[in-house]
């Protein structure tokens, strides 16, 4: 922000359904009483609609309605590529950080998750190489959860922590700068201290509360409901992460991992059907989520022909070890955007714009301005 404000007037867009842009919450969605009506409402919250919002704002805010420069991080980058596809006349230049989407037709979620599960496996291996003592800690925790009544324990908000839900901590813990450390410190406080000899071992309230805070799905149902749809064009996702995850179930099965003496692997940026059973606030949205997963008539998000003939200057940071946006898929997409200038680096993970924002921003601006080499 500091670096950008040296040369730009910065506008922070709360994408529709987030921040102050009519935020979607589980309570506000309850005003729409049927699942079918909720689906009809939610279909307007993808990148195509966000780009229309951005264009509306640009025409009213920018002097003389001139083109502006946009920076898209992660999903924001996906939106920026949609912008390049359908409204390039509104763009002066584009900066992308960890945000090059797959461009294939139909639903590319299956392709994305096949690649991402491999990357998640590698991140797990790195985590346990750094904190091998956590193998036993997590074994003990998974065993405790599995042997509890109903296969889990109650969460403060009324949901349930099960072994499979525990694995979802990888979403925040494995793919960003400082994530390994935060995950390790979380597990340092998993158990209540024994104050009275012989007292029953219990999971600490701190850990249960922090688990809910880490996931945040109850406060951000839009992510849980629409995550897989960001990959859909004319076909359904059909719970793609769950489907592809079953192909490597033996590797990610927490109970089997304990029996075989292997580390319990966490998952990554994947939404599974079970969260609509185990997270209390999401239970009323289970039918809606199922209908969205099987919705077939998603409109296109990208125009490859337009991207092939792109005239807008584009610079992109592609993180070699990005757990969320696969490196090979990002490179394939880049090959379809005419004139794009890539900075490929392993200096940062997906969170590069947060961890080294001034450096990342300055480097990308250098690419746009011809001050950096193009290789």
From TrEMBL:
Cross-referenced Pfam families: Abhydrolase_1
The AB hydrolase-1 domain, residue ranges: 6-139
One example GO MF annotation: hydrolase activity
Lineage top rank: taxon: Eukaryota
Family to which the UniProt record says this protein belongs: Belongs to the peptidase S33 family.
UniProt cross-references to PANTHER family, sorted A to Z: 2-SUCCINYL-6-HYDROXY-2,4-CYCLOHEXADIENE-1-CARBOXYLATE SYNTHASE, PROLYL AMINOPEPTIDASE
Protein name: AB hydrolase-1 domain-containing protein
Species assigned in the record: Oryza glaberrima (African rice)
């Amino acid at each position: 922000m500091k670096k950008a404000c040296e040369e730009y007037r910065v506008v922070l867009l709360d994408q529709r359904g987030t921040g102050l842009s009519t935020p979607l919450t589980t309570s506000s969605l309850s005003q729409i009483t049927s699942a079918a009506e909720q689906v009809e409402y939610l279909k307007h919250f993808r990148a195509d609609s966000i780009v229309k919002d951005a264009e509306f704002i640009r025409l009213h805010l920018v002097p003389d309605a001139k083109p502006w420069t946009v920076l898209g991080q992660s999903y924001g980058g996906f939106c920026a590529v949609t912008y390049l596809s359908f409204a390039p006349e509104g763009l002066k230049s584009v900066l992308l950080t960890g945000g090059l989407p797959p461009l294939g037709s139909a639903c590319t979620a299956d392709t994305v998750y096949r690649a991402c599960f491999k990357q998640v496996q590698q991140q797990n291996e790195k985590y346990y190489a750094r904190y091998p003592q956590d193998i036993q800690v997590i074994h003990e925790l998974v065993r405790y959860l599995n042997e509890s009544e109903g296969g889990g324990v109650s969460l403060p908000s009324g949901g349930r922590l099960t072994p499979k839900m525990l694995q979802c901590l990888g979403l925040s813990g494995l793919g960003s700068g400082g994530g390994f450390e935060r995950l390790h410190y979380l597990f340092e406080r998993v158990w209540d201290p024994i104050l009275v000899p012989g007292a029953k071992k219990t999971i600490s309230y701190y850990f249960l509360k922090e688990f809910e805070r880490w996931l945040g799905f109850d406060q951000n149902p839009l992510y849980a409901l629409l995550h897989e749809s960001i990959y859909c064009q004319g076909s359904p996702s059909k719970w793609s992460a769950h489907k592809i995850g079953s192909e490597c179930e033996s590797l990610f099965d927490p109970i089997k991992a304990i029996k075989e003496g292997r580390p319990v692997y966490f998952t990554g940026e994947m939404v599974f059907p079970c969260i609509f059973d185990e997270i209390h606030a999401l239970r009323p949205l289970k039918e809606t989520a199922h209908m969205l997963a099987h919705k077939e008539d998603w409109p296109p998000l990208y125009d490859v022909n337009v991207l092939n003939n792109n005239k807008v200057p584009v610079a992109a940071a592609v993180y070699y070890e990005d757990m969320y946006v696969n490196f090979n898929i990002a490179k394939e997409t880049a090959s379809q955007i005419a004139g794009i200038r890539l900075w490929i680096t392993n200096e940062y993970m997906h969170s590069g714009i947060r961890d080294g924002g001034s450096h990342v921003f300055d480097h990308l601006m250098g690419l746009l301005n011809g001050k950096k080499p193009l290789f």
